[in-house]
Design a protein that fits this description.
The protein is of the alpha/beta class. The protein has helices at 4-24, 26-39, 41-48, 54-61, 65-77, 97-100, 111-117, 120-123, 129-133, 140-145, 149-155, 157-181, 201-209, 221-225, 261-274, 297-312, 320-329, and strands spanning 81-85, 91-95, 191-195, 214-219, 233-237, 249-253, 281-286, 288-289, 318-319, 334-339, 345-350. Strands 5-4-3-6-7-11-10 form a seven-stranded mixed sheet, with helices on both faces. It has a two-stranded antiparallel sheet with strand order 1-2. The protein has two domains: 4-100, Arc Repressor Mutant, subunit A (Orthogonal Bundle), CATH 1.10.10; 111-350, Rossmann fold. Helix 2 (26-39) crosses helix 5 and helix 7 (111-117) packs across helix 12. Strand 6, helix 15 and strand 7 (281-286) form a beta-alpha-beta unit. The chain binds S-adenosylmethionine (SAM). Residues 150, 167, 170-171, 196-198, 202, 219-220, 223, 239-241, 253-255, 258 line the site of S-adenosylmethionine (SAM). Residues 150, 167, 170-171, 196-198, 202, 219-220, 223, 239-241, 253-255, 258 line the site of S-adenosylmethionine.
Length: 351
């Protein structure tokens, strides 16, 4: 007779045998979701206003039903779309909470983030992780493209646009999470400069929520050159390693994780110079990794993001101890960390 331990081991083996296939064909999930976005499947079902049969969906999209059915079958299996049956047992596709996030123009849409991360150029550096870990001094991104991400972006407007849109997509959900999750954070603040603010979405969203604020969106000249105008937001082009426009508050989101510790300290020194010593502060919006393996879903996402940073940049996702080291090495007096319902936390830093 099998002992409990033997039964447990065989359970583990059976689970492993199932799970390993997720890695063998892991790319299929991303490919199917990308395909659904490019075809506009979620938007079509949404616009239809009621569930759609395969025939209705393929008609509306002008596609052959057979390959569409195969994409939908996988996405239903993954709960990206749902299936509802009528009284005659005829199945129709419906949206689920996941496909709501594949709608192009809704709050909380993740379309731009998915399109950036599934771009073929952006995926290539992942194939050079091994060479880098084995000692190639170049970043995986450099191994593939022969240069760093920001100079590559200058020459690749398509990927630059994908990146800007992805960052904007994240800012649209994170800024309201910051304002809602940190009451008083912008109270008494007249001016904010967003360092590495991309196309200005974060500041556009902030001045809507806090209309008393005058905002500066600061980024490389080529980036702000293409940024849309907005009341209450001034775009300024420059280099954060040289000088940052002065303001009561420096806001810096998803920039420091692109850089190694030495560069982060250089950037934060410039941030410190830009704010008043008595009442200024720097608001860093970045992931804070915990050691707690049981933390749940967002830790998973943060670790995957860290791998992307390893492939693309000199930076990384950091633990609280690593943030503390950078902040205190720059000469800041104190800091607080506040979790928000997002992949990032709010790190408030005082001079
Ligand atoms: C990962 S993106 C983050 C964008 C934005 N903060 C957000 O979270 O939506 C990093 C930004 O840093 C900008 N950047 C890179 N080097 C810079 C520099 N030397 N000076 C100013 N901005 C820079 C890039 O152009 C890019 O927009």
């Amino acid at each position: 007779m099998n002992t409990d331990r033997e039964i447990k081991m065989s359970d583990e083996e059976a689970k492993a045998e199932l799970e390993i296939w997720r890695y063998v064909f892991g790319f299929s999930d991303l490919a199917a979701v990308k395909c659904a976005i490019e075809l506009g499947i979620a938007d079509t079902i949404d616009a239809n206003g009621h569930p759609m049969t395969l025939a209705e969906l393929s008609d509306a999209l002008g596609l052959q039903p057979s390959p569409l059915h195969r994409i939908m079958r996988l996405l239903v299996q993954r709960r990206v779309f749902g299936e509802k049956r009528d009284e005659a047992g005829q199945p129709s596709y419906v949206l689920t909470p996941i496909s709501h996030r594949l709608l192009k123009r809704v709050d909380g849409s993740k379309v731009a983030l998915l399109l950036f991360h599934s771009d073929s150029d952006m995926l290539l550096p992942m194939h050079s992780l091994t060479a880098h870990i084995q000692g190639d001094q170049r970043l995986p991104f450099e191994i593939v493209f022969g240069e760093h991400e920001w100079s590559y972006m200058d020459k690749h407007p398509v990927q630059r646009e994908l990146l800007n849109n992805a960052m904007a997509c994240n800012a649209q959900t994170v800024v309201p999470a910051i304002v809602g999750g940190c009451p008083g954070l912008f109270e008494g603040v007249s001016t904010v400069v967003d360092v590495g603010g991309g196309n200005g979405t974060a500041m556009r969203t902030l001045v809507k929520a806090c209309p008393w604020i005058k905002a500066i969106n600061f980024d490389l000249p080529l980036v702000v050159g293409g940024a849309p105008e907005c009341n209450g937001v001034v775009h300024v082009g420059g280099d954060m390693f040289a000088a940052i426009p002065k303001a009561d508050v420096v806001f810096i989101k998803w920039v420091l994780h692109d850089w190694g510790d030495e560069d982060c300290i250089k950037i934060l020194r410039k941030c410190k110079e830009a704010i008043p010593a008595d009442k200024g502060k720097v608001i860093i919006v970045e992931a804070v990794l915990t050691e707690d393996a049981e933390e749940g879903g967002l830790r998973d996402a943060r670790l995957m993001l860290d791998l992307f940073m390893l492939a693309h940049t000199k930076g990384k996702e950091r633990t609280e101890a690593e943030w503390k080291n950078i902040i205190t090495s720059t000469g800041f007096r104190e800091y607080t960390i506040k979790p928000i319902p997002a992949i990032q936390s709010v790190i408030e830093v005082f001079p």
